[in-house]
Amino acid sequence: QVQLVESGGGSVQTGGSLRLSCAASGRMSTLYVLGWHRQGPGNQRELVASLSKDGRIIYADSVQGRFTISGDFAVGTVDLQMNNLKPEDTAVYYCNSVTYGPVNYWGQGTQVTVSS
To answer: How far apart are CA 69 and CA 72, in angstroms?
Structure first.
């Protein structure tokens, strides 16, 4: 079992920045992927960014060049630095981890609101 705790959400103006943080606890030795998803109003949950233990990084096209994911698999933390935020980034952001199995785990979500 893995538990995820998120922090860093909030409200900002267009062009502002936020940094989301997530800390995992439990069987961290089984972690293979750490990442972030988001779900905006009327939308399905979508991948924002992911980081694999082998070093692979994936960004959604919509955030490429603006968001940066970083993580430490040894301690089970993953951050998402979000710069030049846009109203379209408004969503609930969820920390995600994938363990060998594979099994997905999710944080409770943190609201990010970007006003124009």
So the answer is: 11
